[in-house]
Amino acid sequence: MTFLAAYAIIYVMKRLEQEFKSCGFYFKQLKREGSVAIYEKKSVGHNTVSYEVIRIGSHNGYKLGQNYISPAETYPCNSMWGTNGFTATTMENAETTFKSMKDGVPDGLVANKPKRAERKADSKQPFLMCLVTGEARPTTLKYIESKAQKHGVTPDDIRNHYISKFALKLIKRGHSIAKAREMLDINNSKKVSSKVLQTALKLNGRVQNEKQPVLVG
After folding, report:
1. Which of 79, 147, 201, 202 has the greatest number of C-beta atoms within 10 Å?
2. Angle at the Cα of 124 (from 123 to 126), degrees rounded to 5?
3. pLDDT, tens digit, for every residue of 29-69?
4. Which runs of consecutive H residues, i.e. helices, occur in the chain?
5. Is 211 exposed, middle or buried (0-12, 13-18, 19+ CB in 10 A)?
6. SS3 126
């Protein structure tokens, strides 16, 4: 029996949280049948409400350095939106999409539902886009400028070389970008050059990484 298989037996798969906060939004599960669920999405500090209908994913656990990440259910990432996740402006539309996904209707038949809006670099809310996962997180111009000054680079350098905390941890453990994406269940094939990755490692995290091995593939 393999290391992962042994731990998969010991650990019970962690269910997706019914309520959580992410990227400036509060999420609350309103309905779930099997792997299909509806989450209410509220902007922190505002009354804006929308609904996300998702097909819950999962991983069977994996080893991260000397630690073991237990099996757990996962929320679809941005790259899976339009396939395993859809946005609805009303609960009625959410229920319609929910029924289609639960009944196994091909994704193409519900693909006309509103998708999660893409975060644009020139929008009023600044975002940092992860080189590894392709996911974005909200930030502030003050944070970007402060970090750029600290490292002696331009704000654009910070924007163009951002790596999320969890992806950075995997890279520091010696995993390649391709392996990190696989472990994080990310469908992103965007190429990252060795030079760009090396710069990103220097600009992210608390510790400088001049001697950090770079595994791009």
Report:
1. 201
2. 80
3. 999 998 999 999 998 878 889 999 999 988 888 777 788 88
4. 3-10, 91-102, 141-151, 155-160, 165-172, 177-183, 194-203
5. exposed
6. coil
Instruction: Enter the tokens of residue 194.
Output: 């060795």
> How far is the C-alpha of 87 from the C-alpha of 54, rounded, in Å?
9
Domain of 77 in residue numbering reads as 3-109
- Contacts for 166 with CB less than 8 Å, ≥ 6 apart: 184
Residues 131, 94 within the same domain: no
Q: Provide the CA 95 distance to its chain's centre, in angstroms.
A: 25
Domains in the chain: how many in total?
2
Judge if 8 and 53 occupy the same domain.
Answer: yes
Same domain, 87 and 10: yes
Q: Are 35 and 75 in contact (CB under 8 A)?
A: no
Rounded CA-CA distance 206/93 in Å is 44
Structure tokens at 35: 């792997």
- Helix (H) or strand (E) segment spanning residue 25: strand 25-33
The token pair at 197 is 């990755």
Residues 100-131: tens digit of each pLDDT? 888 765 343 344 444 444 444 444 567 888 89
